[in-house]
Amino acid sequence: MATALSLQKTITGYEDLGDLTQPIQALAQFYRAFNERDLARMAENWDNSLEAAMDNPLGGITRGWHDIRAVYERIFHSPHKVTVEFHDYSLHVFNDVFYAAGRERGRLESHLEAKETRVNLNFRTSRIFRRIDSQWRQVHHHGSIEDPQLLFVYQSAFH
Hints:
Helices cover 26% and strands 45% of the residues. A 7-stranded mixed sheet has the order 1-4-5-6-7-2-3. A hairpin with a 2-residue loop joins strand 4 and strand 5. The radius of gyration is 15 Å and the shape is globular.
């Protein structure tokens, strides 16, 4: 049985995480982990196998939790703070798999050498989760920045 929902409620990561058996809660768990720079929570959200895959502007295509984690470590341990929220998305549930496709908006902020930087971010993104041992685990993420100038600024901040 398949369920498809077009949702307008923004996911910030600060929603109640009481029932992680629900797809929306698994998404909220990811955004909380990301926005709080919480690698332990991020590891709980992702499938920790070699089957996991991510394609994003900072890491390119990475496979396996070990390499995916390294991308998040680079972001989280950077002097730049990135926060994002998920909006304008649809959610599709098929038994033990669900995917969400939509947009992220957020901000990159840094305070380096008395120079303050603030950049508004916009991503197209999709996330795929699989139910593993009764818990939703992220197995795939694809994120992209449409604006070439914004992509350059974002990538330059982490190199």
